[in-house]
Amino acid sequence: QLQASGGGLVQAGGDLRLSCAASGLTFSNYHMVWFRQAPGKDRERVATITINGGSTYYADSVKGRFTISRDNAKNTVYLQINSLKPEDTAVYSCAARSRYSTTYNYWGRGTQVTVSS
């Protein structure tokens, strides 16, 4: 299972660090991905980190402000969000994809991030 946490109500320009804790899976065998979904919008993949943390990928909309990282010893993936904007308001969730899978093996419950202007 995956459980995201760390969301909240933040003023524009503020920072947040989201966490996604994994249990019941061998965390180090999975690429990890953060998604977000704003009301009335499609889900957006915002950041990916590979199994060993050697590579990261970001949506163009968040490059330079979002940083994904992982701690395999703690079975946790993080998303540092800086300089929050009102358009970052969304439910943020995490997902896990095994090395050779083309689909996501696990999805977590999301955490709400609300940015006030």
Unreliable segments of 5+ consecutive residues: none
The average pLDDT score comes to 96
Shape: globular
* SSE arrangement, N to C: EEEEEEEEEEE
- Level of helix content? under 10%
Count of individual beta strands? 11
**What is the terminal-to-terminal distance?**
34 Å
Radius of gyration: 13 Å
The major sheet is characterized as: 11 strands, mixed
Separate helix tally: 0
Helix/strand/pairing category? mainly beta
> How large a portion of the residues is in β-strands, by DSSP E?
over 45%
Describe this structure in words.
This protein has strands at residues 2-5, 8-11, 16-22, 30-37, 44-49, 56-58, 66-71, 76-81, 90-98, 106-109, 111-116. The mean pLDDT is 96. The protein is mainly β and 117 residues long.
Question: Secondary-structure blueprint of this entry?
Answer:
Elements: E1 2-5, E2 8-11, E3 16-22, E4 30-37, E5 44-49, E6 56-58, E7 66-71, E8 76-81, E9 90-98, E10 106-109, E11 111-116
Parallel strand pairs: 1-10, 2-11
Antiparallel strand pairs: 1-3, 3-8, 4-5, 4-9, 5-6, 7-8, 9-10, 9-11
